[in-house]
Amino acid sequence: QVQLVESGGGSVQAGGSLRLSCVASGYTYRSPCMGWIRQGPGKEREGVATIDSDGRITYSDSVRGRFTISKGSAENTLDLQMDDLKLEDTAMYYCASENPLLCTTTAATKFRYVGQGTQVTVSS
């Protein structure tokens, strides 16, 4: 059973930064795609960023240039550096993982394994 545990959410003013982290365990498949998805109040789930086992990265248009996804220093860890945060970035952020044909932000919204989430709130 794959388990994903997020940390690092919180409240920040617009223009500020936060760093999210995820620790994964229980993988039974090779070459997982890992990523971040989010769901804001009254909004649909959105793929934010993904990274595959070869280090290829995708970002949604809404965060490209402001967010940076990376693998952590420890095995099966994932980080998301979020800079220049905007009010519309307010959402519950989830770490997600799968072994899909395509490791993209669109695919990430349907990943089988999703963590419990960490709240990010951006205020003016």
Task: Give a short summary of the structure.
The protein is mainly beta. The chain has one helix and eleven strands.
| Radius of gyration, taken over Cα atoms and rounded to an integer in Å | 13 Å
The structural class is mainly beta
Order of helices and strands: EEEEEEEEEHEE
Strand content: over 45%
- Beta-strand segment tally: 11
Q: Please give the count of helices.
A: 1
Low-confidence stretches: none
Helical amount = under 10%
How far do the termini sit from each other? 40 Å
Which word captures the global form? globular
Overall mean confidence score, pLDDT: 94
Major sheet attributes: 7 strands, mixed
Write the layout of secondary structure elements.
Layout: E1 3-7, E2 10-13, E3 18-25, E4 33-39, E5 46-51, E6 57-59, E7 67-71, E8 77-82, E9 91-98, H1 105-108, E10 113-114, E11 118-123
Parallel strand pairs: 2-11
Antiparallel strand pairs: 1-3, 3-8, 4-5, 4-9, 5-6, 7-8, 9-10, 9-11
Descriptive notes:
3% of the residues lie in helices and 48% in strands. It has 124 residues and is mainly beta. Strands 2, 4, 5, 6, 9, 10 and 11 form a seven-stranded mixed sheet that branches. Strand 5 and strand 6 form a beta hairpin. The protein is globular, with a radius of gyration of 13 Å. The termini are far apart.
